[in-house]
Automatic annotation (TrEMBL), chain A:
Similarity comment: Belongs to the PhoU family.
Species assigned in the record: Magnetospirillum fulvum (Rhodospirillum fulvum)
Classification of source organism: Bacteria, Pseudomonadati, Pseudomonadota, Alphaproteobacteria, Rhodospirillales
Name of the protein described by the UniProt record: Phosphate-specific transport system accessory protein PhoU
SUPFAM superfamilies assigned to the protein according to its UniProt record, in alphabetical order: PhoU-like (SSF109755)
GO BP annotation list: intracellular phosphate ion homeostasis; negative regulation of phosphate metabolic process; phosphate ion transport
Function: Plays a role in the regulation of phosphate uptake.
Chief location of this protein within or outside the cell: cytoplasm
Subunit structure as annotated in this protein's UniProt entry: Homodimer.
From TrEMBL, chain B:
Stated name of the protein: Phosphate ABC transporter ATP-binding protein, PhoT family
PANTHER family: ABC TRANSPORTER I FAMILY MEMBER 17
Pfam families named in the record: ABC_tran (PF00005)
SMART domains hit by this protein: AAA
S-adenosyl-L-methionine is among the record's keywords: no
GO biological process: phosphate ion transmembrane transport
InterPro entries on file: AAA+_ATPase (IPR003593), ABC_transporter-like_ATP-bd (IPR003439), ABC_transporter-like_CS (IPR017871), P-loop_NTPase (IPR027417), PstB-like (IPR005670)
Length: 242, 259
């Protein structure tokens, strides 16, 4: 006897395949949404931002599909071993990607408000932060779909860099606001946008950890070093949901 | 995880090999059977799991042409060879439940009392009544049969017959109970009752179960051993084996990718 890639029951492979395809489509959509949101912010492009805000529902409906499909496979196939890990991580990763989509839509929404206000110099730095989080999302989804645990771990390590940049940027924008109170309104929105982008890095990190679990069967237990120091600057909790 | 600490082995097998005539059915198997746990033996047909099970109480002795080499111990005492345990006494300590329920064509009472009578374990009358009742209670059958102990055991439903066979095995006070696919002839409700029973028996007995149902192995056992072509491929905590098996062969088998 030999072990193949395929299951003896072919419809099982079809069902698992549907789950993988939907996740790939969902990930691709979230990447596009995030890229467009950053571009809309940079170029003060209201039309593009509007498309991002309207496009979030497509990610949500894929999330619903993945939930239903995963429950169906769990109920009908009682998956074990790597199949079980595939189904459970698909379910959880879909949730993470859905949040990434929400945060991208929120960035686009705030960029529409910023367009009504005078430009702020720090917008450029925030969009750089955005491109870094976008790269993390792209790499981690590639790692998941390519079954590459090592690559997922590399993404996980990059979150620290993102946190550091975010903290530095937070301080910079705060100083800017203190120097010129007229910038408080746009800068406040920019702070929220930066926070959203930093959160996206956290979701990418969660996906990296689940990718590692799916491939190796080992959960990553060690706590990552948190480099978000913004809480100490403001007395705000570091991971408030926006 | 309700189970704490490393369990001590109730039975051990070392370099265990079995031949049926010229055919090697089991080759060089080492396995510890943990005390007070349920150990599930899984693997495709002909992998040697039932052969292994039958070695534990010398059931292979009754098969012509079968030869067993290697070592099996019960509480450290050798089961085979010179100085080995007497097979009749061994089978009282290591009981067995078979695939198809096989009650004797006798009354329910006599089915359960058969072993204690044969072994001279207790006197007829109140003593025997107590043994029959407690065995049927342990097997979860007492309430269903207490008013018809004088009727034939073969008149019970399949699931009840299987629980009667478990009561019969329990009646002689075994330490280990071997089960060879005890639910394969039963419907899901009778199966669930046997599984619940296995779980409750775990406090007092060490159980080894051979099953073709992956889900049953996952549900009832704490330790799973995967057999393939007469050898053990992987043995470990059931939870580990079913979420992240160490061997590719195990993964292929339990996920249904075995060609």
């Amino acid at each position: 006897m030999t072990i193949g890639e395929q299951h003896i029951v072919k419809s099982y492979d079809v069902e698992l395949g549907k789950l993988g395809d939907a996740l790939a489509r969902m990930g691709g959509l979230a990447e596009t949404q995030l890229a467009s949101a950053i571009q809309a912010l940079e170029n003060r492009d209201g039309e593009l931002a509007g498309e991002v805000v309207g496009g979030d529902s497509r990610i949500d409906s894929l999330d619903t599909f993945i939930n239903e499909q995963a429950i169906k496979v769990l109920a009908l196939r009682a998956p074990v071993a790597d199949d079980l890990r595939t189904v459970v991580t698909a379910l959880k990763i879909a949730g993470e990607v859905e949040r990434i989509g929400d945060l991208a839509a929120n960035v686009a929404k705030r960029s529409l408000v910023l367009n009504q206000l005078p430009p702020v110099a720090q917008t450029r730095s925030v969009s750089r932060l955005g491109r870094l989080s976008l790269a993390m999302v792209k790499d981690v989804l590639d790692a998941y779909l390519g079954g590459d645990a090592e690559r997922a771990l590399v993404v996980r390590d990059r979150d620290q860099e993102l946190d550091e940049i975010h903290s530095a940027l937070f301080r910079e924008i705060l100083t800017y606001m203190m120097e010129d109170p007229r910038t408080i309104t746009p800068c406040s929105h920019l702070l929220f946008i930066a926070k959203n982008l930093e959160r996206i890095g956290d979701h990418a990190t969660n996906i990296a950890e689940m990718t590692h679990f799916r491939i190796t069967g080992k959960a990553l237990s060690e706590e990552r070093i948190k480099c978000d120091t913004t809480a100490s600057l403001t007395g705000m909790p570091g991971h408030d949901e926006l | 995880m309700p189970d704490q600490g490393p369990p001590s082995p109730k039975m051990t097998a070392r370099h265990l090999a079995v031949r049926y005539g010229g055919k090697l059915a089991l080759k060089d198997v080492d396995l510890d059977i943990a005390a007070g746990r349920v150990t599930a033996l899984i693997g495709p047909s002909g992998c040697g799991k039932s052969t292994f099970l039958r070695c534990l109480n010398r059931m292979n002795d009754t098969i012509p042409g079968a030869s067993v080499t290697g070592e099996v111990t019960l509480d450290g005492e050798p089961v085979y060879g010179q100085g080995g345990l007497d097979p009749v006494l061994l089978r009282a300590r290591v009981g067995m439940v078979f695939q198809r329920p096989n009650p004797f064509p006798k009354t329910i009472y006599d089915n359960v009392a058969f072993g204690p009578r044969l072994m001279g374990l207790c006197r007829e009358g109140a003593d025997m009544d107590a043994v029959v009742q407690s065995s049927l209670e342990s097997a979860g059958l007492w309430n269903e049969v207490k008013d018809r102990l004088g009727t034939k055991g073969t008149g019970l439903s399949g699931g009840q017959q299987q629980r009667l066979c478990i009561a019969r095995a329990i009646a002689v006070g075994p330490e280990v109970i071997l089960m060879d696919e005890p639910c394969s002839a039963l419907d899901p409700i009778a199966t669930a009752k046997i599984e619940e029973l296995i779980d409750s028996l775990r406090d007092h007995y060490t159980i080894v179960i051979v099953t073709h149902s992956m889900q049953q192995a996952a549900r009832v056992s704490q330790i799973t051993a995967f057999f393939h072509l007469g050898a053990i491929i992987e043995v470990g905590a059931t939870e580990q084996v079913f979420t992240a098996p160490a061997k590719e062969l195990t993964q292929g088998y339990i996920t249904g990718r075995f060609g």
